[in-house]
Amino acid sequence: LFVLPKSAAAKQTTGPFDAMSNCDEESDEYKRTVEGFRDGAPAAFEQLWLCHNSEVLAYLANRPCGRKDPVRVSQQAWIKVWIKRQQFKGGCFRAWLFTIVRTTCIDMGRYDSSKKRNADTGLGSIPEGFDPPDRRDDGHPLDEEITALRECLQQLAAMDSDVFETFQVIHLGDHTVESAMEIIGIPRATVYTRVFRAKKQLRACIEKKMSQS
Amino acid sequence: MNTILLTIPDLPAEWRDLAETSWAGLWPEKWPELSRWLDQQLVGMSLGQLVEELRILRDAQDKRPADVKNLVEAGPKTLDQILTPEIRRKVLDHGTSALSQAEIQGLFSSPETLLDLQEDIFINGGKFWQTVPRTEAHKQLAQSGFEAIQARIGTEATSVLEPAQNQNSADTPVKPGSWKNAVFAATVLAMSVLVTLAVLNPSREPQMSGTGFGTPGLLDNNVDSQLEYYQRMSVANAEWLKKTRKNSTELLAALRSYGMDCKMVIDSEHPALDDRNERWLKLKCSEWKGRIEEIVVALESEKMSFEDATTKANEVVGNLVKKLHVGPTVQELQQVG
């Protein structure tokens, strides 16, 4: 019933019809699409997915509950959106959508945690066959780089504290330190140079640590 | 290397060359690259990583000597403490170029607030945020994977959520004497008539009116989805609505052409649609054609005024435009299935 031969998502935004032009929430087209979705029109659902999936994925990729596999969580969230479509009582569709995305992410995060805990403690676990094939059960690939950054910042703070301090203050700001630097009389050009040096040293340090690992 | 912290735009070169005294803050007054960069981070897939990196940068101060540590203001702030409601609204409408240096530094020194701001943007952000460029990888990821949702909903929506409708599917025997049986029989009969007409008249070259369903190229199989096929028809019929008919003669001619165009849609094959969608479209076209013909008859016999006929015709085509814009519902597809 739900089969569309080719996904609208694969379509380029050229030609006589531009799917993304229907994502303007103030337009009548968008309002009709939301009504159609609520009435159970699969095409309208796909249109809404096309309009908002980019934000859904970004939201999930940046939260602990969805970071490991945002695609998997987003798919589950969109399925819930379809299932609960008749509960949408109008108003801001995005607000309703993100309520579902948020709860789905939290629920799946809890489920994954309890599953891992059960596996770790030997209390029994859900068979691996229940996992989607693209599921990552290992650590996040960026964790190594985060560790490297932490070590390199500490190294910089210990070995070249002026450079580190300037780099930190320019980005995080602190009026006390800013004032102190002004009183000490550090010229702007020095601040500029120190930020440049900090970046250069950090980049080299992280690259070195990553290549070693 | 993917460290986001190191991709923060460099300080503007001209800032370095400014006078060394009487500077109100550490940041340059104009740093548009920074707000552009931050806008992209806020809609991107790596904001969480940036938050983590800024947290590390903030906490790294603890490794420094106590006298320096004491200089640094402690304690993270909330988004509401950093941005006033007015400023926040400006950001939602126009992006982070609305922020001062102190406000951006405030967000960076309490990096968790960036995630709160991102959520606010996704829910309440204005059109500006749709124009912020996404990475190619993000775009590709966002536009793929609907098939997996379709596949799962195709099962769940019918077997779990809508069991009543699912029982009416083609695979389920229809109980004798029920109204569903009658609908099914009528559908089969209607389809038989259509098929027979098509078989008896296979080489007919329909004359298209050039508007509405008669718009050239409307039935071409050069679309990437059924949604696009329906919506192209919706747009074409919306164009038909825009045209003004000055009197009964013009309206009659337009409605007769419209009816013929409907018939052409009914008689044609629609390779862009799957079987159920094609059946649904043809049945709906038969229905719309019937309504148009009723108006023609009423207008010809002067049982309906020109004004009333115009209103009625616009109502029929207007509803049709709306329906084609979203396509059939699951229930409607089940009914023709």
What does the model show?
The complex is a heterodimer of chains A (213) and B (337). By secondary structure, chain A is mostly helical. Chain A is 65% helix and 0% strand. Chain A is built from eight helices and no strands. Chain A is elongated and about 65 Å long. Chain A starts with 27 loop residues before the first helix and ends with a helix. Residues 1-18 and 124-138 of chain A have low confidence and may be disordered. Chain B has 337 residues and is mostly helical. Chain B is 64% helix and 0% strand. Chain B has helices at 13-16, 32-43, 47-59, 66-71, 79-82, 85-94, 101-109, 112-124, 128-131, 136-142, 146-161, 163-166, 179-200, 226-242, 248-267, 275-300, 306-326, 330-336. Chain B is elongated, with a radius of gyration of 31 Å. The relative contact order of chain B is 0.07. The chains are: A mainly alpha (213), B mainly alpha (337). Chains A and B meet through helix 1, helix 2, helix 3, helix 4 and helix 5 of A and helix 3, helix 7, helix 8, helix 10 and helix 11 of B.
List the helices and strands and how they pair.
The complex is a heterodimer of chains A (213) and B (337).
Chain A: H1 28-39, H2 42-61, H3 70-83, H4 93-121, H5 143-159, H6 161-172, H7 175-184, H8 188-212
Helix pairs in contact in A: 1-2, 2-3, 3-4, 5-6, 5-8, 6-8
Chain B: H1 13-16, H2 32-43, H3 47-59, H4 66-71, H5 79-82, H6 85-94, H7 101-109, H8 112-124, H9 128-131, H10 136-142, H11 146-161, H12 163-166, H13 179-200, H14 226-242, H15 248-267, H16 275-300, H17 306-326, H18 330-336
Q: Helix proportion of residues of chain B, in percent?
A: 55-70%
Q: If you average the pLDDT of chain A, what whole number results? A: 78
Structural class from helices and strands of chain A?
mainly alpha
Order of helices and strands of chain B: HHHHHHHHHHHHHHHHHH
Rg of chain A, nearest Å: 25 Å
How would a crystallographer describe the biggest sheet of chain A?
A: none
Using the alpha-carbon principal axes, give the shape of chain B: elongated
How many E strands of chain A? 0
Count of separate DSSP helical elements of chain B: 18
Say how many strands of chain B there are: 0
Give the CA-CA distance, first to last residue of chain B: 54 Å
Radius of gyration of chain B: 31 Å
Largest sheet of chain B: none
Distance between the termini of chain A: 50 Å
The residue-averaged pLDDT of chain B reads: 79
* Helical content of chain A (DSSP H or I, runs of 4+): 55-70%
Instruction: Detail the poorly predicted runs of chain A.
Output: 1-18, 124-138
